[in-house]
Amino acid sequence: MRNKINYCSILLVCCCIMSLSACSNSKNEFIQENIDFAVQQTQLMLKQTGEPTGKNYPRTMNDKGKLVTTSMYDWTPGFFPGSLWYLYELTGDKNWLEEAEKWTHSLEPLKTFTGHHDLGFMMYCSYGNALRLAPKPEYKDILIESAESLSTRFSENTQMIKSWNYRKAWNDTTEWFYPVIVDNMMNLEMLFAATKLSGNQKYYNIAVAHANTTLKNHIREDFGTYHVVDFDTITGATLDRATCQGFSDNSTWSRGQAWMMYGYTMMYRETQDPVYLETAVALTDFYMKHLPEDLVPLWDFNVGEPGYVPEGKSYAVQFQEKLKDASAAAIACSALFELDEYVPQKSYGELAIKMLESLATPKYRAELGTTTNFLLMHSVGSIPHKAEIDKPLVYADYYFLEALVRFKNRK
Ligand code: GLY
Question: What tens digit of pLDDT does each residue of 327-350 get?
Fold first, then answer.
């Protein structure tokens, strides 16, 4: 009898080991296949762009199937250098290091830029990864100076960093003098880095103040989010809650929700304040409730639903197709890998793996040599602006690669 039990236990242990090793083999194969694809596709992209000129940062593809690039002063120039850093991290190949450095260094003039709030995306996806993966002494000062430039947009009255300068809402009558958008949560990570690098607590305090004011004003009771909140520049009072890139003022724009999930997860990492963790979890649970079967969300969770009405000059007034946004999925997927580390009992990691697998299917991942050499298809830049509708986007690719790195490093 005893022999029989021992034999059974040994068999069981062997089966477990075999199935764990099969799991880890299939994980490794999945990761390697995606790395191989990203390497080849990005080599083609580099042939297309040539050397960085300050004006040729890949962004999307136009209706004629041609590559669209931007100048460094748009909000997205940091993502392509950031993707090159992730390829270096994923492969260890020094050619990627060289390319990543070249494209990152081309952005140095931005360290004094104060034209909008996106400096975190621009400088932290590029120089932040550079500092992490191949530090050079000058990176420290560049990041501190960038944080200083971003901080010039913070005001004591509002306790917020102003996202955009003056503009009108889609109804063409409401004016925004101090608009702050949910995306701005993503720019705070660079401020935490600047405090660690400089010892100056100011940047940390600005990040915390901004996150706390966002928590009070941009989140609804059900943990859906408003894209834009406008503030009185003197009293700090809330003047308008609206959308610029979502379907309607009262809807939840899925990429905005993903920025918030990522942003509050990062806030918890940097401060260990449990309020941020609770917020990240609640935002994530809202997002998950609205996911379709393939885990890639509609570009706005409420598109075309009764009670959600786009206004004025927004192209969403006439265009109400229920398109998906792969960029929102990639951002959320990367956020979930991190959130899983803080709340393992919620199984966010398992969900993140499924999201990544879905993005890597031919439904969303481009074929080699197509889609002007971006990695993912089917994102939405901004339907209200009639821009980048069902197109590849450089930031979808960046967060897809980041999620791949996080999956690879997952214990
Ligand atoms: N931060 C702008 C966007 O998500 O489109």
Answer: 999 999 999 999 999 999 999 999
Report which secondary-structure segment, H or E, holds 175: strand 175-176
* Among protein residues, the one whose CA lies closest to atom 1 of ligand 1: 183
Each residue's pLDDT tens digit, 102-146 = 999 999 999 999 999 999 999 999 999 999 999 999 999 999 999
Q: Contact at 8 Å (CB) between 325 and 380?
A: yes
Q: Please state, in angstroms and rounded to a whole number, the distance separating the CA atoms of residues 378 and 267.
A: 29
**Ligand 1 centroid – CA 51 distance (Å):** 26
**Is-catalytic flag, 294?**
no
CB atoms within 10 A of CB 75: 18
- For residue 321, what are its two tokens? 């197709």
Task: Give the single-character DSSP code of 128.
Answer: I
Check residue 380 and give left, alpha or beta (phi > 0: left; psi -120 to 50: alpha). Answer: beta
Find out whether the beta carbon of 338 lies less than 6 Å from any atom of ligand 1.
no
Sign of torsion over alpha carbons 314, 394, 339, 197? negative
| pLDDT band (50, 70, 90) for residue 24 | confident
pLDDT of residue 1: 47
Is residue 126 within 8 A of residue 107, CB to CB? The reply is yes
The CA–CA distances, whole Å, from 173 to 167, 169, 178, 258, 312 equal: 10, 7, 15, 29, 9
Using the structure block, give the residue that is written with the tokens 């191949």: 134
Distance (Å, whole) CA 148 – CA 112:
8
CA distance to 80, 85, 111, 162, 183, per residue, from 165 (Å) = 26, 31, 19, 7, 15
Supply the pTM of this predicted model.
0.95
